[in-house]
């Protein structure tokens, strides 16, 4: 399968102090579901944000869909960004706006400044938004204000906003860290479904090893700003996982047996 | 170690000892340089006040009589109000001019302040630009509106033009602070999300910043309108900007018509109360909406 994302020798240093990432290398193929796991402060969020340049890497190269992300100009970067959807732990919706208004924000990158300012969306875009919201089970919430939704529903609006971009890649930074187990499952099922049936590549930061094992094709383990594991979910051993988290044997809670049900 | 119970961080002395200790501390109130300076100034001021009252050249005015006359004047003003030099409809017209002055300066101020407020908000603007605008605006705000009007009167001459420019000037500085602080309180998550989807600055301003802070914008703007109404009354008198303030100036300084002053005061009071009620209602509506 075609390579969609290439991360080459990427490092990131904040100011003169913390080196958050050092010499990160990996590739992601089209249609893959990749989980990035690792302890707190390992650099997972930084890594994800370096991909769409929400944070600028200090050195290295990133090639996404044949575009050199660090060589394009500002205007072209916007075009790259609209092909990459982003989903956040805290949903990051505009609370005062309705569900569909929030979802339609995903279209702004395709619109003229004026149309975006006035919130003028075409019938086609509105229809697409309604369709995506229906797929995510939000058809009854379309005109509700976003702050009246539950966490799980908000996250689905966040996913809808990303999907309406027609992205090739979805970056999710701990999408289920603030959700209960039921909503977490709903969200992860949706993400897996988006990957499998829509063919959108998904890269997700996770804190739950068992969830990562259950849903992903491949796992990238990060510790201390370095990739310490990169392999398929079938091939990962409990030893690998302990190494990723830098902890002693037997202290972590996870279960390799139930892996890869998705 | 006790698992629960009151925490005693210090080995406190028992009851009587503690009281004594505290009393001792209190009596040892530091007699510092600044406290001496304050006491001395108070003393000097008190002596000067007494001396001044005793040595004023009162001419024929007796203190007691003056007091009674003042009360009598107030009585005329507020219990026998009437209009003589202009009619009720003319008064209404003049009030509308004053309201118009307040409205115009608030709207001008709001529009310019909105733009500057966006540039002054640290989360959506660049750091140096934000610091510069905030600093300038703080300087402008430190000088009272009336002074700004008088400053602009140098170029424009005393009158409505100087009043409009000066009042707008101060409104801008006031609203830039209010707006930019509301913008800075907005959760940066939604801004980040739209940046990540390829939206541009203007789109983010109108799709995130404005919708998230619209209730604050409205409340602050209306608050400024109330202030500007009061200032517009004063400007009518002080800068010859017209309106009810000018009539009041004429009634007091020209015709010495106490009853008319009372009537005008009532007029202004009623308008101010109406504005206050209106403002409260707007705020309640906004609260319900959010
Ligand atoms: N804006 C910043 N300025 C300075 N240091 C930062 C900044 N953002 C992150 N860091 C540092 O970079 C390192 C990696 O942080 P990052 O947020 O990427 O970790 P993470 O793996 O996402 O952790 P978590 O699982 O807790 O979210 C940390 O040491 C952090 O303190
Ligand atoms: Mg993180």
Entry summary:
The complex is a heterodimer of chains A (262) and B (290). Chain A is an alpha/beta fold.
Question: What order do the helices and strands come in, and which of them pair?
Answer:
The complex is a heterodimer of chains A (262) and B (290).
Chain A: E1 3-13, E2 19-29, E3 33-37, H1 44-51, E4 59-64, E5 67-68, H2 74-82, E6 84-87, H3 99-104, H4 113-118, H5 123-135, H6 151-163, E7 169-173, H7 181-198, E8 201-205, H8 209-215, E9 218-223, E10 226-232, H9 238-245
Parallel strand pairs in A: 3-8, 3-9, 6-7, 7-8
Antiparallel strand pairs in A: 1-2, 1-4, 4-5, 9-10
Helix pairs in contact in A: 6-7
Chain B: H1 15-27, H2 33-55, H3 63-79, H4 88-120, H5 127-142, H6 145-156, H7 160-184, H8 188-196, H9 201-238, H10 244-254, H11 258-289
Helix pairs in contact in B: 3-11, 4-7, 4-9, 5-7, 6-7, 7-9, 8-9, 9-10, 9-11, 10-11
The structure holds adenosine-5'-triphosphate (ATP) and magnesium ion (MG).
Can you walk through the features of this model?
The complex is a heterodimer of chains A (262) and B (290). Residues 258-262 of chain A have low confidence and may be disordered. Chain A has helices at residues 44-51, 74-82, 99-104, 113-118, 123-135, 151-163, 181-198, 209-215, 238-245; strands at 3-13, 19-29, 33-37, 59-64, 67-68, 84-87, 169-173, 201-205, 218-223, 226-232. In chain A, helix 6 (151-163) packs parallel to helix 7. Helix content of chain A is 34%, strand content 24%. In chain A, the strands form two sheets. In chain A, strands 6-7-8-3-9-10 form a six-stranded mixed β-sheet, sandwiched between helices. Chain B is mostly helical and 290 residues long. Helix content of chain B is 79%, strand content 0%. Classes of the chains: A alpha/beta (262), B mainly alpha (290). The interface between A and B is medium-sized, with 34 and 22 residues. Bound molecules: adenosine-5'-triphosphate and magnesium ion. Residues 14, 18, 20, 38, 40-46 of chain A line the site of adenosine-5'-triphosphate (ATP).
